[in-house]
Amino acid sequence: MPYYQRVGEVPRKRHVRFPRPGGGLYAEELMGEEGFSSDSSLLYHRYAPTAIVKAEAVPALAGAELTPNLPLSPRHFRTQELGADGDLVSGRRLLAGNGDVRISYAAGDRVSELYRDSMGDECVYVQSGRATFESTYGALEVAEGDYVVIPTGTIHRWVPRGTVTALVVEAAGHIRPPKRYLSQFGQFLEHAPYSERDLRMPSEPLLADGEDVPVLVRTRGGLTRLTYRNHPFDVVGWDGCLYPYVFNIADFEPIVKRTHAPPPVHQTFEGPGFVICSFCPRPLDFHPDAVPIPYNHHNVDSDEFMFYVGGDYTARAGSGIDVGSISLHPAGFTHGPQPGAVEAVIASGATATSELAVMIDTFRPLDLGAGALACEDVDYAWTWAR
């Protein structure tokens, strides 16, 4: 993250003795990215974070396979049809993915087991519901519209209050704010659509007791369940620039212009081989002769994966797209407004849009997961020809 945080108790200097009350020392753990040449944090544990008593291989979750998008076609998936199934970790339904990213839909009302993704960062967009996100860094209250960015290797769990639905982005590397929004030293610049004030991070330690505590770990080799001698939530303090944080989509400040602006103005995060964008309520284009909806476009280098989460989608009227829909427009296909949408929006005199959507553009083709194929609208590709 761009700036330093300090939570709980830490010693005055790094890598010095930190005495525990009653004798002994707290155990220091350095969490660092890119071979400790990028962002890092120091965590101070009551017990050794290395003490495990068991390691077991875990079979791959059902539905983890991917199928090429062939024949090449635009797709429409209705996530409303998937229903709730477990928790926000084990209940993930794989929608699409490639070597850079895997995208899943999750809906559940159960507490997840402790989990650590050691393959890359995760970004979880909460579509509906409320939950507590608990981790070794502390707890965060999350709700509708929150992006929860979780650094690689963070042990955490989800504690929902009722049913929570979410879009889960699992990266093969790190998810960060776009470089063009930051100064050379990491501060958000004035032209950025959000700033440090819009981010929420843990503010106090989260301490839990327990012995022989299982943690599900995802690695490049598959799934393993490690059993820790002591509960991993034993951190009395930490400091640094690496930690989970929350950003709400309602705090994204849209960038507008007199004629229609291209998707990069909506970019919110970037990852290896993909970007995440937020389409938020905003004024429509205000040139006297503007066409205030998207033009037909063909992103020749990207697949476009769009999750529609709120508002009114005037440009897609007649396509079947609604709240909870996901459209996939692959590179190699030109897409845009439905027939008649341009004329209709001009005639309406509308000056603002209420649409709310999360878009993921990937720079390698997306293959399809079982979750997507289970809720596909097979007639979607032909809606422009009606």
TrEMBL record:
InterPro entries for this protein: Cupin_2, HgmA_C, Homogentis_dOase, RmlC-like_jellyroll, RmlC_Cupin_sf
Q: Which residues catalyse the reaction? A: 260 (proton acceptor)
Q: Source organism's superkingdom?
A: Bacteria
Q: Name one GO cellular component term.
A: cytoplasm
Gene Ontology MF terms? homogentisate 1,2-dioxygenase activity; metal ion binding
The cofactor(s) it depends on are: Fe cation
Q: Which UniProt keywords apply?
A: Iron, Metal-binding
The Homogentisate 1,2-dioxygenase C-terminal domain sits at: 279-384
Q: Name one GO biological process term.
A: tyrosine metabolic process
Instruction: Keyword check for Membrane, yes or no.
Output: no
Q: Which residues bind homogentisate?
A: 313, 335
- A Pfam match: HgmA_C
Q: Which residues bind Fe cation?
A: 297, 304, 335
Using the record's annotation, list all stretches that form the Cupin type-2 domain.
Answer: 103-167
The record's SUPFAM superfamilies line, in alphabetical order, gives: RmlC-like cupins
Q: Which residue spans traverse the membrane? A: none
So what family is this one in? Belongs to the homogentisate dioxygenase family.
**Protein name as it appears in the record:** Homogentisate 1,2-dioxygenase
The protein's organism comes out as: Acrocarpospora phusangensis
Q: Which gene encodes it?
A: hmgA
